[in-house]
């Protein structure tokens, strides 16, 4: 009995140590990012960084404006979500409620494989196939646009949205479905008036996590969006080349002199990206907890 309690305490201590190590690593990442990021504000003000309209880090009159990078990331991510959410939710409803069990079991592994494809492969596919198609279809000077990046990021976000939405829909108590059908509702009425509203919190969490997946992507957007640090025009911004925050860090960090203002500006961009991603994950986690509470 003593040995059993000792083993349980040991296992508990190991698991606690691993969890604590995760928190420590996150805390160290925050220090690492914010320490170098804040050093930028010795050369420029925080307001100029957050509201600046130009990103010219190597010119004589250096300007480190976040707005072109922020709006580029926002436009590409919003386009990806608009593309992925309807397809993802429709696919989740089909797999969970409509498809034959054998068909559903056949489709799920392909969705998981799609989630495991490296981002550079998606980027190469977009560069070779989608970029020429967008250029020809819309008669553009280049196919490397925000639209191309949105479509590719939407494809990459689909597995996350489909998987979590399908789990949420499958977790809806069968009594709700049976009660709706017993009251005379059709199958489609049951789906969109009973099942989807009951799973809405889980579906919302799937959308938020898909958004986090899209906004944090680097290689794909770097290969297909054109990497032009300008504020997208309205309303035709989807057809403009853009540059995202992640692509800026990936493109410039390898060549920037360490300790320079440009170096610290990239860390400041990374700090903003870290805060945005953290907020998205916290919102998604809150939504998931509310969903679990309602299901229980």
TrEMBL record:
Keywords: Cell membrane, Membrane, Phosphate transport, Transmembrane, Transmembrane helix, Transport. It is found in: Cell membrane. The keyword Membrane applies. InterPro entries: MetI-like, MetI-like_sf, Phosphate_PstC, Phosphate_Transport_Permease. It holds the Pfam family BPD_transp_1. CDD domains: TM_PBP2. Residues 70-284 form the ABC transmembrane type-1 domain. Its main location: membrane. It is a multi-pass membrane protein. It comes from the Archaea. NCBIfam families: phosphate_pstC. PANTHER family: PHOSPHATE TRANSPORT SYSTEM PERMEASE PROTEIN PST, PHOSPHATE TRANSPORT SYSTEM PERMEASE PROTEIN PSTC. This is Phosphate transport system permease protein. It comes from Methanosarcina lacustris Z-7289.
